[in-house]
Amino acid sequence: MAEKDIPNGKGGQEVTPWEVKGNEEGKIDYAKLVREFGCSYLDQPILDRMEKLTGHRPHHWLQRGIFFAHRDMKEVLDCYEKGQPFYLYTGRGPSSEALHLGHLIPFMFNVWLQKVFKVPIVIQITDDEKYLWRGLDLEESIRLGRENVRDIIACGFEAENTFIFSDFDYVGGAFYRNITKLQRAVTANQCKGIFGLNDTDNIGKVAFPAVQAAPCFSDSFPHMFGGRKDLQCLIPCAIDQDPYFRMTRHVAPPMGYKKPAQLYSSFFPALQGESGKMSASDPTSAIFVTDTPKQIKTKINKHAFSGGRDTEAEHREKGGNVDVDVSYKYLTFFLEDDERLEQIKQDYTSGKLLTGYLKAELIAVLQKMVAEHQERRKLVTDEVLDQFMKPRPMPNIFPRSPDLQINLLPPRS
Ligand code: TYM
Q1: Is 266 in the pocket of ligand 1 (CB under 6 A)?
Q2: How far is CA 316 from CA 95, 162, 226, 262, 362, in A?
Q3: How far does residue 409's CA lie from ligand 1's centre (Å)?
Q4: What is the pTM of this model?
């Protein structure tokens, strides 16, 4: 294939949509992923251009390099500058009742993008994928999907601009036609190469990648986009989903579509350290959006890997290591205040700040954030949920409203 079709990095590292494992040193080598997957780093000129076009300071996850890689962001920004529409696409495979904090990252980020660019978003719930891979009961994966959608809506998506769909419900019509076209465009050998599947895997797994690829094509959503084939799609998510989109990009132009663009984040790490992503199947590795303040406190105090020293005296003398400290890492995601974060970094590294205080700061940030999320989730009634999940005309999304000005700010210093 033209785009790289290597499923995993070498050297023990494994990054697939189903497994994320660090290399021999227990780290994810992101430079290697960028090289092997064939994407590019997000650089300052792209962030500056985003700011200039939207008038919004880039999200702190962009500034801190948490969203760090991309494909075709230039094309997306070109579209935006010319006033041509684009849309966002992201998703969730419902493998657990509650989302963990890592899952929130792409959704919170997409909420911000939707607001800043004023664009529609489609969100796919791959209940079929989890049925095929996880051995879940079929009705159970549908139920988990609906529970997860409540959390996704609670992140703050706009009702008039957002379509959330379960594969089991929505496959059919224009969407299924695109799935079948994709299935004809990719051979079983290519699919096995990209996804590391073999002949003992069930045939549903070989057929599924076309289902995750089809939302990249705008005519899969005629109720939103009126059958247009030409809309640019941008997919913000973590880099583990890349195999699906490498495959899609390879076949899109011969099928008459634009290649979908991507914005990729690194992984919110497990409590135990950087060797993998937070996993919903290991409760001690993760903080869930359903956790109580007490659970959050206990998990951080008991399980969050510390870069502090063995004794207080040694810590005061030599200082802690923020590079491996999970509590500090978590703060880089969820503490927005740049100055406070820098202060914590300096004080921890110099030995002035002890691990216990660092953890206490994180606990307070997460307890507040999770409690707010839980309050918002309570507002997602069945009616609200059905409203987001109903295929419905969205007459006001394109063309962009004329009172929407492209705000040209002076460049950042
Ligand atoms: P799933 O359910 O495994 O993950 C949902 C989303 O969360 C991201 N993610 C993370 N991000 C940061 N840190 C972590 N520790 C972490 N763990 C998971 C994933 O990258 C994903 O964006 N097959 C997909 C569902 C899907 C999808 C999509 C995802 C369908 N269409 C389009 C992204 C874009 C899945 O099972 O995701």
Answers
A1: no
A2: 43, 51, 64, 44, 20
A3: 33
A4: 0.93
**Are the CB atoms for 205 and 215 separated by under 8 Å?**
no
Tens digits of per-residue pLDDT, 120-161?
Answer: 999 999 999 999 998 889 999 999 999 999 999 999 999 989
- Ligand 1 atom closest to the CA of 103, numbered from 1: 7
Give the whole-angstrom CA distance, residue 256 versus residue 185: 12
pLDDT tens per residue, range 178-236: 999 999 999 999 999 999 999 999 999 999 999 999 999 999 999 999 999 999 999 99
Ligand 1, atom 22, lies closest to the CA of 237
Distance CA 47, CA 224 (A): 29
Q: Whose CA is nearest to atom 35 of ligand 1?
A: 93
